[in-house]
Design brief:
The structure is a single chain. The protein is of the alpha+beta class. The chain is built from 17 helices and 16 strands.
């Protein structure tokens, strides 16, 4: 008698498929087989068959009838098959006693363990055979017939995810064997079906690169990065970014013949066992480390521009700034061993976007000095943001993002602070200060504003998602609808204009004079602002 779970639930006696009864009886068998040769408490079985608020008064009786029906089926057909499963009562519940080799799930796990062990030993071709045999046992989603009836067990998700892990091991083993052309189709299908799995995308990038398709390999990276940022607010993991950098540099370690074949991390014999360190897959794990599914990640949020609007040089600048390259051979985890979990908050704050545009074709415009000009303009912007109590979070190209949080009522020593301007007013004043600073000639050594410069700024106030890493000194990241609103205001801001949202105006209208922008009550232009050291009057902005 054989039990097949990797697909619709089936029990075979010889080549005959046995009748398994109704949904509850099939579900009882499926749940017991997930934990074969282990006692499953009755309360756990009841929770698996019914939700807490949906269990009938006769639930325990229905379960007992299901167990009785399964025992009859097993006892009737077991002897004819030469090896029967046995469903026994063991306090505090039930257990199905069966030879693991007659359950396809357990046979799958054994083949996987053997295949990974061969991969770890450097026997790539044998690993491909064993991992391929394990994957061939699958006939569809695990317990597919029960899933169709609405069954949703965490154990099913875990088994389904393990298949994806094994598929990645199998494709990696084939890459080690030099079969990069052969795996392209399956890798592309896998990445299309699972767009958030970084290891699959990394393997596809390596396969494409080895097939001479460097541009396509980098496109895969850009695609997964855009998906991660837009859907989850995350940047790709450190390993995937290192692989991208290696492809950009055409690192020789990515070539199949550039390094001796390595080993993969073996499967522990028990969940508590710790696998020994793994050697490097040629070109991939050496350059991009190992995608084990548990790699340390640094959480980043998109700061100013959407991925579609960032240039490749922007991407490289952000990656290098956040993740400086380590010497070859240095352990990837050395910098992150004591890192605490990132903290996420949704505080009420004001965000300021400042864009300093340089217009080509303007009299005196110097293309050869654009990089230095932008460096100077961004430095001026960041300085004014900091001077007014803001935090310059990011600069991409000509755009700088600043965060302004409400000031604490007490100082660090516990004394009461003097009343300070609110976050919205400080953000508007920072925008005005940047514009005034760039417009007023100042003596050297300061750099004068370049010809063809136009200034644009927007301020939005509300709640935003802010993430930061406690103790590491890096700037926080910000995302959410508030930043989108600020970006939308910036795109329609005229040269020299500071445009704000309705919430910013409401918080500052007692000090700042505003006019409607484009006749819309949701967008306002700052017209006049008193000097910073006076409560009223003066100071056109």
């Amino acid at each position: 008698m054989r039990f097949r779970m990797l697909g619709p639930l089936e029990v075979l006696s010889g080549e005959q498929s046995l009748p398994l009864g109704g949904v509850k009886q099939r579900a009882t068998l499926g749940y017991l087989l997930l934990q074969a040769n282990q006692v499953v408490p009755t309360s756990q079985l009841l929770s698996a068959l019914w939700s807490t608020d949906n269990a009938p008064a006769t639930a325990r009786k229905i379960l007992q009838n299901a167990v009785w029906g399964l025992r009859g089926m097993l006892s009737e057909h077991g002897p004819a098959a030469g090896a029967a499963g046995e469903l026994v009562t063991r306090a505090p519940g039930y257990m199905i006693r069966v030879d693991p080799d007659r359950v396809d799930l357990h046979l799958f796990r054994r083949r996987v363990s053997e295949g990974r062990a061969r991969l770890s030993a450097g026997a790539q071709h044998e690993a491909v055979r064993l991992l391929g045999e394990a994957l061939d046992l699958w006939r569809g989603p695990v317990l597919a017939d029960l899933v169709e009836t609405g069954t949703m067990w965490p154990e099913l998700t875990a088994v389904q995810n393990s298949r994806l892990d094994v598929l990645e091991d199998y494709l990696e083993a084939k890459l080690r064997c030099g079969e990069h052309y052969a795996v392209l189709g399956e890798l592309e299908t896998t990445v299309e079906a699972e767009p958030l799995r970084e290891r699959s995308s990394g393997l596809l990038m390596l396969a494409l690169y080895r097939c001479g398709r460097q541009v396509d390999a980098l496109s895969v990276y850009n695609r997964i990065r855009a998906t991660l940022v837009e859907d989850l607010g995350l940047e790709p993991g450190h390993e995937l970014r290192r692989l991208q950098q290696a492809i950009l540099a055409q690192d020789q370690t990515l070539d199949l013949a550039s390094a001796p074949l390595g080993t993969a991390a073996p499967v522990p014999a028990a969940p508590a066992a710790q696998p020994p360190p793994a050697a490097a897959l040629p070109g991939y794990r050496d350059a991009a480390a190992q995608f084990s599914g548990h790699e340390d990640r640094r959480l980043l949020l998109a700061a100013v521009a959407s991925p579609a609007h960032r240039t490749r040089s922007d991407e490289r600048q952000v990656a290098v700034a956040k993740w400086p390259a380590q010497p070859r051979g240095a352990p990837v985890h050395s910098r992150t061993a004591v890192r605490t979990a990132p903290v996420a908050e949704r505080p009420h704050l004001s965000v300021l976007l400042v864009q300093n545009r340089l217009t080509p074709g303007h009299n005196g415009f110097r293309p050869e000095s654009m990089d230095e000009d932008f460096e100077h303009l961004n430095a001026v912007t960041r300085k004014q943001i900091e001077r007014l109590g803001g935090e310059p979070v990011a600069t991409i190209g000509a755009v700088t993002l600043g965060l302004f949080r409400p000031c604490s009522a007490t100082a660090d020593d516990g004394t009461r602070r003097a009343q300070e301007p609110g976050a919205a007013l400080r953000a508007v004043r920072a925008a005005a200060a940047v514009r005034d600073r760039l417009a007023v000639p100042v003596p050297q050594p300061a750099r004068p504003a370049p010809p063809g410069l136009t200034f644009h700024a927007s301020v939005a106030t509300g709640r935003a998602l802010v993430r930061f890493q406690p103790g590491d000194g890096t700037a926080p990241t910000v995302n959410g609808a508030l930043l989108d609103l600020c970006q939308a205001l910036l795109t329609v801001t005229a040269p020299g204009e500071i445009r704000v949202c309705a919430a910013t105006r409401a918080a500052t209208v007692s000090v700042v004079a505003y006019g409607l922008a484009d006749g819309s009550p949701s967008a306002w232009r700052a017209l006049d602002l008193p000097a910073e050291d006076s409560p009223a009057g003066g100071g056109a902005i």
